[in-house]
Amino acid sequence: MTREQQLKFCKKCTNRRLDMKVGLLCNLTGEMAHFENECKSFNLDEAVVEKIDDTEAVEHNEVLNKLSDKNLEKFKTEQELPKAIITGIVVGVLAALLWGAITVATGYQIGFMAIAVGALVGLSIRFVGKGVDKIFGISGGIIAVLSCVLGNFFSIIGFIANTEGLGYFETLNVFNYSQLIPIMIETFSGIDLLFYGIAAYEGYKFSFRTFTEKDLYELEK
Fold it and tell me: Is residue 212 a part of any domain in this protein?
């Protein structure tokens, strides 16, 4: 066993003692842990268990480090990547439509909408996908950014439709798509890049299956 694996037991044992120079020691032997697989002197400290956080999600990289290979493989078999991507795309399109509608209704492009789009896409992927692999986060980030771009496109269509007195579907049909990129560039600002970056981060972060400290303890005890 590695030192880190041994410390998972030591931190919850009543026989632990902290030495400021070397770290946790066994109070019975006065030495660092040397056991393999299990410690015969282990005595669970119930007070420590009660203090374990069961509300806040642990960072995904930390989850991967704390899960055993057996549990990690188990959760990988429960993943649903195709369903997660489809759901993320559907939610992203709906969020983009909402973004466009709010922008046209208010007359302002609200950058904070990008953050909401990223969170919605990520949470939908998490709920359906139950993912622990990196591809879930990457997919969430990409879909979130593309949804933001689509939201800006819908805003442009909405403004053109209102200006020209056309219906939205009619505008989509007659729009000169060769002008799309120049128009997107003209309406793009530096702050958009910041919000797109946040949306990508939110889409990535929220796309993973979550575990609390208590969940991890129950799995690995």
Answer: no
Gyration radius of the chain over CA positions: 25
Q: Which pair of structure tokens corresponds to residue 114?
A: 């990008």
Question: Is this structure's pTM higher than 0.85?
Answer: no
63 exposed, middle or buried (CB, 10 Å; 0-12, 13-18, 19+)? buried
Q: Is residue 164 within 8 Å of 171, Cβ to Cβ?
A: yes
Give the DSSP H or E segment for 145.
helix 134-164
Single-letter code of the amino acid located at 51: K
Integer Cα distance of 35 and 16 in angstroms = 14
Residues spanned by the domain of 164: 81-205
Instruction: Tell me the residue type at 169.
Output: F
Residue 58 lies in a domain: no
Residues 197, 203: Cα–Cα separation, whole Å: 10
User: For 18-69, how does the pLDDT look when each residue is reduced to its tens digit (9 = 90+)?
Assistant: 888 888 888 888 889 888 877 888 887 777 765 665 677 888 888 888 888 8
Q: Give yes or no for a contact between 207 and 126, defined as CB atoms under 8 angstroms apart.
A: yes
Q: How far is CA 69 from CA 12, 73, 153, 220, in A?
A: 21, 6, 45, 11
